Amino acid sequence: MLSSESEHLFALSHLPSFSAKRLRRWIDVFGSAERAWTASTMELVERGIPQNAAERFFHERAVIDIAQKKVQCARLGITFHAMGTEQFPPLLMEIPDPPLGLFVKGKQCDAPVSLAVVGTRRPSLYGQQVTRDLVGSLAEQNIPIVSGLALGIDGIAHEAALERDGITVAVLAAGLDQIYPSMHAGLAERIVGRGGALVSEFPPGVPALKHHFPIRNRLIAGMTNGTMVTEAPRSSGALLTAELALGYDRDVFAVPGAITNPVSAGTNHLLKRGAQVVTCADDVLAAYHLEQKTQHLPLPETLTGTERNLLAFFGPEPLTVDQLVKMSTLEASVVNATLTLLLMKGWIVQLDPVHYTKV
Fold first, then answer.
1. Which of 35, 45, 137, 252 could form a disulfide with 30 if both were Cys (CB 3.0 to 4.6 A apart)?
2. Running DSSP on this structure, what letter comes out for residue 171?
3. CA distance 356 to 359
C-alpha cells in the first residue's frame, strides 16, 4: 500500500508508455498523484482521457509490483527524489516539463552554481584539450560539472572534473543499472565514489533507447545554471541541449573553434546567436560574479631535471612521444618513463593514446 504523494509519483514513474508530461496533466486533472494512480478506467475516460490510453494505463498499473520496485532500488543503492520535495533540484521546477522525480545514485550537489558541459562524441584534439583545461579549472573552483556520460566531450568533462578532485553528475538516458555506453561503467562508479551522482528519470531496468536522449538532454539543461558547449557540429544533441538551455532562460557558453572545422560549426553558430564566448575559466566565473580561488600546484623544485627539461617543450599544442624525442634528443624509453612520472604528478594529461598536453 502506497502511503504518500512521493510514493505515488514513484509508482507513476514506472509506467513504460506514459511520458512525464502526460502524467503531470493527469495529476493536475485529479488533484494529486495518489488520485491519478488509483483512478479507474471509467474515471480516466470521464476526465477526458482517451479510452485506449485509459485501458493501457490500467493494464500497465496492474502488472507493476511497486513493492518489488522499491526493494530493487534499495538493493541497487538508488533513491527516488520526487518532484516538489526538498531533494528535488529546484532549478528543474522552473522548466515547463519537469520529471515526476529523479532516480539518484550517489549524492546530488546543492552548490549555488552548477554547469552543464556538452559536446560532440568525436572531438578533435583541440576539443579534448580545451574541455580538459576549462572543466579542470572550473572544477577546482567547486563548480559541479553536469554531463551525459556519453563518449567524447561528456566523458572527458567527467574525467577532467575528477582529475581535479571536483564534483561531477552524470545524467543518463536509461535506468541507473543500465550504464550506457558500457565502457563508461568504471567512470560511473568513480563519479559516485568521489562524491558525485548518477541521475535519471528512468527507473532501473530501462535501456538507453534513441528517443530517451532528448528527454535526458532537457534534464541536463534544466538542472544547471548554464550550459557550456566546447565542440559540436551544427546537427548534434549537444546543440539541442544548448537550445533547450536558451529556452529555459539559462546561460549558454560556447568555445570558439576554427571556421574550417565542421565539428566547431555548432559552437560558432551559438556565438552568432548570442552565446557567451569562453576562452578561459574566468569567462564563466565572471558570469556568476565568482572569483578565481588560488590553486597550489606542485613547485617546480619537486621535479627532477629531466622532468623539468621535458616539461619545457610543452606549449599550447599537444605533443607525441616522437615529437618530444626529436625536440629533446632523449631516448624514447627515457621520454616514455618521464611522461609517466609527469602524469602521476599531475603536470600533464594524456588526450588519447599518443598525444599529451600540459595542465
1. 35
2. E
3. 10
